[in-house]
Amino acid sequence: MAARATLSPGSSPPMSSSLAGINDGVSVTLSPDAVPFSPLASGDREDMGSVAGQFSHYASKLRSLRAGDPASLKTQLNLLFDQLISENYSPNHNIRPEEVCALLIHVTRLVPLSQEHLVVKLCQLTHHLLNQLQVIVDEQTLDVCVCYVVRALAVCSLWTHSEVLQALSTLIYGNGPRCNRHLIELLGDGGVLRLYSDPSQPDMELRRAALTCMANLCLGQASLEDPYRSVCFRVFLQTLQSPKPPDAEELLYCTVIQGAVKGLQSSLCGGKWRFGGQEELGALLAVLKRLMFQGCPGVCVEWPSVLYPAPLPQYETCSTPKPPEPPQNPPTQTSGNKKKKSRGRGRKGGGEDEEREAEPRLQRGGRGGEAWSKTSVLPSPGVPSLYPLWKRSSSDSEFSDPEGAAHSKLRLFHGRVRQGVLLCLLAVVKAVEKRTLYGYWSSFIPDAPIGGPPPLTLLTVVLKDPSPKVRACALQVVSALLDGSRQFLGVAEDLAPARTSYTPFSFSLATAVRELHRSLSLALLAEASAHTLTQIIKCLAHLVCNAPYNRLRPGLLSPLWRQIQPYLRHRDVNVRVSVLTLYGALVSTQAPLSEVQLLLTHTSQETGLSWRQREGFSSPHTPPSHKYHNSHTPRGSHTPGEEEPGVPWLLQLCVSLVTQPKDDQSDSEGPGGGGATALEPSPVRLEALQVLAHLVRGYFPLCQACLCELGQVSARCLRETDPSIQLHGAKLLEELGTGIIQQYRPDNSQSESCRVPISQVVQFWVDVLSGPLNGALQSHQHPTLQTSACDTLSSILPQAFTQLPEKSQVLCVTVLLGLTYSDNSLVKAAAVRALGVYILFPCLREDVMFVADTANAILTALDDRSPNVRSKAAWSLGNLTDTLIGCVGEVFQEELSDMLVLQMLQSATKAAFDKDRVKSNAVRALGNLLHFLSVSQLTRPGFQRPLEEAVSALVTTVQSEATMKVRWNACYALGNAFRNPALPLDSASWSGDAFSALCCVVTSCQNFKVRIKSAAALSVPACRHCYGDAERFGDVWRSLAAALEHSEETQDFLEYRYCSSLRHTLTHTLTHLLRLSQSQDMPALGMSLDGRSQRDQVQESLTGSDGRSGLGVSNRIRWEVPERSGLGVSNRIRWEVPERSGPRVTNWIRWEIRSRSL
């Protein structure tokens, strides 16, 4: 393979017929198709002083060249190429891509392959033009130029191949799907790129160039076909796994690694990627983990070739490194000076790259908790150290200037390798399924150190790497691992005492969460780069959002809460925004948490609020936000420097960030420059509004004292011109309304005295409805704002809506009815949903006109082309029909138009065949409507066919393969329809299909909740004749008995939790059928009880160990089975039912079932 990898000038790889016609090195007569020279007219002459004019001038000269003296042609081409290459182009110059493509096609016909210097210059020109002008060549240019460079690789000398490959990589950049006809020559067996990228290729520069070409081929969403992508992936992985050749330069080897890593990243980002098994993924993760520490001195670890989902402990064991030789010259300068100098640079640049190598992580504050974090200059033997060799001595004379520059360049290249590897690992995390990655967490996320040297993980890079960009990339990977891991981390728990015999998995996860907190807190203390600091805080926010703090010992959030407070005054806007994001995560995770509640009410003189108060928190333009008092919530007076007792300081801080001017007028990031009334930058204000919304949602009892003040903040935001501020102001209003509704729910255990008084709620909404919310509802140019405003109207407390002034009620209803005809689907969906909420209000559901108007609007929305609109309309129709069967009387039923009821029935039937999210509520509405129909309506001919179609739709849905929620609702709807005594269940043609569908589901459905609801539906008919003849009654009984017999058989372990509820419902239904059974039903019941196993199963379910069935009364059922006596068997059922009230009376019911002889 080594012989094939190094191509000699005389050798040529296999080529296709697409290379025919390319000149092969002899003197060639130029094509007569070349564009003839024609001088520009004076009116069309370009300005020669511009770059575009220079390009057009030289390009015209190239196009004017004709066949002539080869020496003269060579000279002219040399001069023109040099002049074109010397120009500094930019994408903003007025140079059309068509001109560049035409020029490249023409010059490939001018330069013979025998003139290798011209070939090199042509390749340099191709790279220069396409790279600086950012031109993606068209398909014709791509074909011509790729054929030319492939032929050059086969014909020209080896010294030219590096430039030729560079031109090829530029040509195919972003053109991977168009290179199909060249893939065999490039990536096939013996292809050019396969040969040059082979690990046995001795020329490292050619390997790097070939890998770059392959990476550019894989770039883009619609890149190579899977076979060729797999070839590239294996080449990249093989390159990373191969050791560095002993005679290769370290810098060139770093560039090769960068090319392979970039190619892997392109392959993974180019669409869905399927790894060739667990071994391939484990091998990739292993090599990426090794390269995460590329160039880090003191890391001498026996790295595994493959990582497995449960890595063994020896995979992370560090071998004993050779002790480093002591420096010849002892240090003459203290390390404190270096610290001071490095910190100064850190403050100045904030986000500088690897050239500003920060001081080693070992000497930064807060690292003392690590076993590696020794303050001595030299590490102790046996302990790996990331302390850079070039920083172990403070002597300035240890290296000469050239040596120092070489070491700095090597550090720079190593840092770029580590950065690229971490970005590739980030692509792996995003491409692989979360569940698959959970097995590899222990290789990248450590748990608490128990002893010995700590493992090498991502947090090691975060704490120890000298490059801020590398640390930021490692933090991005950790954030990606944490994002969406709530279900995995939800298993973590350490509330129970620690076990000494073994360590449960839940405890290991809990220790991993604690180690993440500890390590990220140390990184937060030591970080000087603003960009990396932002990533640390974002990573903490991801951790807080996914960790189950209600299952962990308290004490994790309090130190973090106090640690991030000083960063609220950081000069960098991104840092301040990320801090607010973290506070939002803290107040929204598993709210309400007692630890967070204490932190919110805790008064501290060093909070961000007190800082703003000390530096002019109050402003003459707006009332100070810490003065929370009004006529509805009287408060005692206090000085401006005091905090309001009972009001969360975080709420006051966020209000001040939204409404008050900036405290630091030298901060130049915000809008308005340095004006006296300049507010905080928009990102800070938006994040503060989001924190307020999270705070109100999770801790409304702490915020309710400031209800009217928060309403004023929202009104102020709605009056601004920034749509984003307006949107978040409307969302804050919605959260306030939702918090009030939560307090007044019947299941809320909060005492009435702790709730917001109704009078205050009414006044709050009166102020809101008379404020700028009306403008947001009519803001047609901002549909998202209109949508949020509709959601705000739907969050009005029903008890408060009744007491609103009539004009306010009319305003809400009129606006919502009008917006249901909006052209924007989001606005229409929100308006229809809000009407579905209003239809449940006691003061509106008895208004026939409102019900009719709402029904017409909903029916119109059900025909909308947007699935979202139809889904909201079906939900609202379900709510509307709930009110029809809930609280309306006969007068209302008579006033409601029969035609409107018929239209609702037909629309709901049509929606029952829509998508599942529409169907689930459509079948609910069908059940309600079938329950609502009166005798007079059922006897009308116009209702007969719609009635049959409605029941048929429910039966089809019950028996369909739809989602379980849809089938559950369909079973509930059939049971709801059975409650209508006017329906002819005994004689209708569709009733048999309805009972058969329910019987089928109760015995065969895999989902126990659907079986429970179908069994409940079968118990709804109150009269015996509703079940039809004896044969149908017997079918229902046998189905229920069979379902009871197999009630513990399931393939899904999660269904077992519903087993008891299923048996209870089946028992209730069987008992109901026993009560209704008549003499003609006895033979069918007796035949079903002949089998001893089934009889025993029914008896065991109907009679508990204490003689109770769980139905609220004590039912004791005895089965008396005499011995066989000649002609038959006499099965006597004796049922003892004590009455619920009065003296204990025993009712004896006895059936004697004669069955035929056995």
Automatic annotation (TrEMBL):
Disordered as annotated region, ranges: 318-377, 613-643, 661-680, 1085-1109
Domain DUF4042: 416-596
Bias kind Pro residues: ranges: 321-330
Biased composition (Basic residues): 337-348
Pfam families in the record: DUF4042 (PF13251), HEAT_EZ (PF13513)
Domain of life from the UniProt record: Eukaryota
Entry protein name: HEAT repeat-containing protein 6
